[in-house]
Each structure stands twice: as C-alpha cells, then as structure tokens.
Amino acid sequence: MKKTIAFIVIILLLIAACAYYNCMQREKFEQEKNEAVAAAVQHAIDSMNQHKALEAPKQMVKAHKPPPPPAKEIKPEPKPEANMLVDARDGQEYKIFESGSGQWWMRQNLNFASPGSWCYDLDDAKCAEWGRLYNWEEAMSACPEGWHLPNDQEWMSLISYYGGTLYAGKQLKQGGSSNFNAQLSGYRDKAGYFGKIDESAYYWSSTEQNKDYASFKGIYKSVDNLGTYTYPKPDAFSVRCVKDQE
Questions:
Q1: What is the pTM of this model?
Q2: How far apart are CA 233 and CA 246, in angstroms?
Q3: Please, what's the b/e burial string for 82-113 (b: 16 or more CB within 10 A of its CB; e: otherwise)?
Q4: I need a surface site. Which of 64, 95, 127, 145 has the fewest CB within 10 A?
C-alpha cells in the first residue's frame, strides 16, 4: 500500500513538474515575441522620425506681430563678385562674402571631388550647378586650406544676425539680404537614394550629437523657417565653408 501511494505521489510530482516547465516555456515564448514586436515598432518609429527631419517645417510666425528687426543695423555688404576664393587643389573659384556678423562664408556650394562625395543623381552636370553632396566624415576635411566646416556656434551667429530660425531661411535663400544664396541641392541617403533637389538645402555642421549623428541646417523653398536638426553621418548633404579666424 505504501509503495502504491509513493508511486502515485511521484507520478503527481512529475505531472506538476511538466506542467510548470510548459508554463515557463510559454511565458518565455510570449516574452520573446513581445520583445520582437516592440523592437520592430521602435525601428519603424525611428525610421519615420529620421526621414521627417528632412521635411520642411510648418511656416511659423508670431501672431499679429511683424518679424523682429535684426539685433543691430545691417551694414552694407561688399559686392560678392569682387571677392573670390580659388581652391588651390583643383583651381575652382568660389564667390565669397562677409556676413553682417563678421564671418567670411562661401556663397556657393563646395564642389571639390573626393571619396565620400557625389553629384546629384551621379550626374556631373549637376555638380557644376549645385555642388557636391558629402557624407559627414568627408565634409569635415573637404574645405580648402584656411577654411573649415562651420560648427553650430558659427551657424547660429549667421542665423541670429538674419532674424533667427523663424525668419533667417528667407534671408539665406537666393534673393535674400545675406548674399548666402542657398542652393536647394537636395540630399543623398546612405542607400544611394537622391531627393529634394530644387526643394530644400541641407548643410552639414561640424558639431556632433554622438558617434552616429551630426548637426545640419535645413533651408526650404516653401517656408522661411530654418531647420536645425541632426542626421546620420553616412548620409550626404551640401557643404559651405567658413574662413578660419586669424
């Protein structure tokens, strides 16, 4: 009798152990499935947010108030035609100008051919008109000697002088008061897709967010706002160089 009871107890324990094991396996499977779904959703969200940074922002103005005047009177600027930069590496000439903030900037997009740079749609004729598109690593060393890729502080000095992010886009576009003459040269993503030519200009800043992302400034045909965002370094944007301080 005792042996029979012991045998029954052992059987019940084995059944309980199997049930517990199956329950744990189901919980593990459900947890792994939930984690996989969460990762897929996050990846989709990150992808949407990344591409959203390239879209023109909504036109924003302060209600019932005209644009604020610049912080100081804008001084007459020298005619850019009288000021040229010759790139000793390939002999190309670029118009340059002195901004009201006292910085010397290129008035045209850089067009120095180097690894990590592309013509829009791989069309050489577009390089002549729009300049080249550079990934961030290449942009960091692409400027001629004595010039460099501007950082966020240098960009904001220019932007603030011409009305801040709400209004500077208008002044930095062709026909604006700044002589920056932004060329709406579009972008190239790391997969090789080109987009937004004649719609938007994206200019790299030397300021990094982290090892994967860096800052850029967006100028848009459809609005006067100026965008300041971050984007993956392997993607390719335009470059404007600013003169080293003596």
A1: 0.73
A2: 29
A3: ebebebeeeebebbbbbbbbebbbbbbbbbbe
A4: 64
